[in-house]
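ok trying again, last paste got cut off:
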Amino acid sequence: MSLGQELAPHLPFVRRYARALTGTQKHGDAYVRATLEAIVAAPEDFPRDVDPRLGLYKTFQAIWGSANVETGVDGGQDAAQPEAIAQARLARITPRSRQALLLTAMEGFTNEDAAYLIGVDAPEVETLVADALSEIERQTHAEVLIIEDEPIIAMDLETIVRDLGHGVTGVAVTRDEAVAQAMARRPGLVLADIQLADDSSGIDAVKDILAQFEVPVIFITAFPERLLTGERPEPTFLITKPFQRSTVKAAIAQALFFDSSTVPA
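nice, full thing came through this time. structure:
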């Protein structure tokens, strides 16, 4: 099997990580493209002492690290709004802490693997993750709309949201109900399933809502392949069911990290 064939199954997920890290599909994909170009240019430098997924993320980390992320992604005069928003927060939280949070909570790496990827000792990863969550939670607050037709899952999500100090505007189980609730009480964040109670689509519900106003969205689904298609647009934040609570907490923290309505004064 060629190196390209080994890496192909992992590309949608490194793209997800890149989007979550940068806040935009444009910037995230630019880093992934640079990562693949580096691998093609020097395949002999690809880490072969670890599994292909870990090697791919390691190469991405090297590209990301070379871009001076201490001051954010360099987007020039056309820097995306989420990156400008992030500048208000980056002074308060280090990129390494955010990387540790995303690699463990969203991407599912062990503390040992995350330590290898970001170049720290394994015990430090746990500290970095705790620091990141604490600081992001301190800076952000939102009212959250939950679009989920499974009562137990909806209750679990509501508990997670409230445990993080956020409010819940409501729980919707159909497309029409979701749109009506969003119009009645505008949320600052949406958590959305894809398949809803009346066979309507959470994707369509989100499209209807976004046609009225901008709001960060996290999709939580058992069918990630329906969204990770490689076509534009793809969701910046996507969680696969069954999920870990830590994964949802990390995604909420990152989504609000880039949201203008929660920028600290």
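cool. Residues 122-139 form the longest helix (18 residues). Residues 68-80 have pLDDT under 50 and may be disordered.
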